[in-house]
Design brief:
single chain, 134 residues, mainly beta, Jelly Rolls, 2 helices, 49% strand
């Protein structure tokens, strides 16, 4: 069961960057809950966060496997990341870009984390309508 951080807790950023690769090859369901937690921010800025997939943990597909909505404020934002249709993907990594506008300094600042938790296969089977009709 995968339970990891794509971005560790209390990571503070002021420029675009990437998290460390997380090996998901041992996952059975290939569906994950990704929870973005923004714990600190300044006014008039935004963060764009995506999750990329890779076969080898070195070369990353330019098309992300998941995209968060653009965010501006503190709080938690969960999304489902389903890579079941991408059997070759063995690693996931976060990529972020930040920007700031308006008054004050021009340097953005976000403090955040990105947790990744595998959704158990039995939970997914319960949610599927065809599984209920059996």
């Amino acid at each position: 069961m995968i339970d990891a951080f794509l971005v560790p807790e209390k990571t503070r950023v002021s420029a675009k960057g990437d998290g460390q690769p997380v090996d998901i090859s041992g996952a059975t369901s290939r569906v994950f809950l990704a929870i973005l937690s923004i714990t600190d921010t300044v006014e008039q800025e935004a963060i764009d966060l995506t999750i990329a997939g890779s076969v080898d943990g070195t070369t990353w597909d330019p098309k992300p496997v998941a995209v968060f909505p653009q965010l501006f404020y503190r709080g938690e934002t969960p999304i489902l990341v389903d890579v079941s249709a991408l059997p070759d993907v063995k690693f996931l990594r976060a990529h972020w870009e930040v920007n700031r506008w308006g008054r004050g300094g021009e340097t953005p600042m976000f403090e955040f984390s990105l947790a990744l938790k595998e959704v158990p296969a039995e939970l997914l089977n319960e949610a599927r309508p065809e599984a209920k009709s059996r």
